[in-house]
Design goal:
By secondary structure, the chain is mainly β. 7% of the residues lie in helices and 31% in strands. It has one helix and nine strands. A five-stranded mixed sheet has the order 2-1-7-5-6, covered by helices on one side. Strands 3-4 form a two-stranded antiparallel ribbon. A two-stranded antiparallel sheet has the order 8-9. The structure holds FE2/S2 (inorganic) cluster. Residues 36, 59-62, 64-69, 80, 82 line the site of FE2/S2 (inorganic) cluster.
């Protein structure tokens, strides 16, 4: 994935690089950053689609308030990407519509 030039990291950042998988592609994230920051830097949009219209959404507040950043993270749907720190080997995918609970959509 190419870096999205509208979301950049500060040049003074000296954190270790780790590999995560986003939509089946390897992405380099920085230790300590959130999933939302990593996927936005990688240029992934949208990060979820709405259950009703299917329209795309992306992180907005970056502080756990708006819930626009819900993603499937390590097999767990409806996870707030802006409140989840990356770790080596993490697997992330776009959340399509409502999450499945016991085989039913909610
Ligand atoms: S971006 Fe608003 S809750 Fe995550």
């Amino acid at each position: 994935m190419a870096a999205d030039l509208s979301f950049n990291r500060l040049p003074c950042n000296e954190r270790a690089e780790i590999e995560i998988t986003v939509e089946g592609q390897t992405v380099i994230a920085l230790e300590g950053e959130t999933v939302a920051a990593a996927v936005m830097y990688a240029g992934l949009r949208p990060t979820r689609t709405t259950p009703v219209s299917g329209s795309g959404r992306a992180p907005y507040c970056m502080m756990g308030v708006c819930f626009e950043c819900l993603m499937n993270i390590d097999g767990k749907p409806n996870t707030q990407a802006c409140m989840t720190e990356v770790h080596k080997g993490m697997v992330i995918s776009v959340q399509q519509g409502a999450r499945e609970v016991g085989g039913d959509s909610i």
